[in-house]
Design brief:
The protein has 3 helices and 8 strands. The chain is an alpha+beta fold.
Length: about 300
Amino acid sequence: MKDRRSVDDLSIAELQRVLSEKKREAREARLARYRETGRARPVVPVGVLPPADGAPGPESPPRPRSLARRLFDAVLLLIEIAAVVGLVYVIYNGKNILDSLNQEAAQSIAESVQALPTLVPTPVITAIVLPSGHTPPTDPGGAQFNAAEIPESMRSLWQALPAPALPTQGPTQARRIVIPALNVDAPIVQGDGWDQLKKGVGQHIGSGDPGQPGNLVLSAHNDIFGEIFRYLDRLQPGDEIQIHTVSQIYTYFITGTRIVEPTEVSVLAPTVHSSLTLISCYPYLIDNQRIVVNADLRTQ
């Protein structure tokens, strides 16, 4: 029932309640007008986003996915699982294939090595006997290459050896030899075979060049073809030998002389320093040995 008492009859508490009620009614009326004109929206609880236009509000239940959508999602999941499984299989299978190829290659290499013939080292033969060997000119057959000096066990090998290729004489190679103590002045040619020693003093193929580290080996006859090295046994330690190239003269000094057998090919061995070796048959008109003269380069 509506209270019909006058304002003067109401207590302060009742007046406050009536005023509060009036304010609430006025506020609701104002909100109602705002809602009608679109100037106000429904109140959304704190922490809840307001729904978009046309979307169901928080109180609306989510719409269930359609059967087609669920089937599509299931197919995508199966495809992803199949891709992962396929990748794992490719990696595993590739590793097995690589291991198999490596094993086959190793086995093939091992079989190839076993099929190769056993290699036997072949000695490098530069000479069987020392150069300048020949029979004496006083022999019934005259002077000729003395094949009897070659050991019987090596004669077949000597016959099989090809003739050495003679290099073209270059500017750094020996061209002339001068031995003042013996009054020798003779040309030097490449090679020390029978034909080369007819032309002068022969340089052993592969021996060192003048003035350079190594053993320069020169040979000449003592009783034929000019008897160039007839008096090698007269040389004394300290005597000089001059070796000429196109543009240089190198001076060597004698360090020693010795008599060796024709098979003493070690005298042809290279040296680490610049040395000179002179070789000729010995004795005169007998020629069954060799005289070897050694000399070193004069550096000062």
